[in-house]
Amino acid sequence: MGLNQTILSIHICMPLALIIVSFRLAIRARRFKHQPPQTQARRHLFDAGDILCIVAIPFLIARWVLAHIVIAWGTTNIAGGSTVFKPGEVERRMSSSIYFLAFTLGKYNSVWSQKAVLLLFYHRLIHHTSWGRLALRLAWFILFATYAAVQVTTFTECRPFRNYYLILKKRDKCVRAVVQLFVLGILSIFTDLLLIILPIPVLWKITQPFWQKLQLTFLFSIGIFVTLVTAIRVPQNFKNSTKQMDRTMWVSIEILVSAFVANMPTIYGLLRRRHIQKSSHSSWTGHQMPTNPETEHSAAAAGTKLEQFDPFGASQVATPDEEASLNHENGYHPRTLVHP
Description:
By secondary structure, the protein is mainly α. The chain contains 12 helices and no strands.
């Protein structure tokens, strides 16, 4: 992998990951903006998953900038043998290796924050079941434990610590970070598989047509692509352990795929809810809206019942708040309409 190709992969993958995260936040903000004031007073602009995405943005930007510097300047992770350095190159490589440690933090925080975003999304899907609550507690424990294990491995593999950024005549194996590479790869694959398996039992119990269940299963299983990227990256990086460019390219791809996998279910759900609201609005055009409180209560109850079986919380019947939100956005007042 050449220098130009690696830099190109950085400047493609990292902006795309930022666009995906920002698009999710923009859709959420737009939906909140068009809700009536009484609904806004009862709800927050962003949920916990959105806040994690906001926290991840600075790490994505930092990783983007530092990855370019690390690749352009090089690091102390170089092949053994006699190497002739240009004037100032040793200092640049040592500084770049220090930046690389911060770059590594950005990498871990970006990937694990997206895993947490996906787990928060699953919370609404399975927390109402007894096994789901237990599974969620176990999953959160595993997520925090694996994150801590990766961080500890990164900062304890090399002893003394300064060997991370010194150019030594005898190449120390810790500079190549082989242990960190395998720990990160194995734990990342393990957590990805956990997040793939977690929602499947509930998806197949919901009362929806078979093909829709299959569609939802595929949507929640796209995390397998992250697993595949990691499974390809680890042996490739081990084979080229002194080539930082290969590591950086594969991690950039992994971060992009992680952002896509973690945010796509929420993006899909928000867009789908919007489509259902519009469809519900169109079905009432030119007709009298129900004014009987008992009828309205029945419609809301139907929406709630369906919503319990919808992993995206988007029922086939718009709830009163959703109907009011759409009416508020379009300046539409259903009670003023008269049946033709």
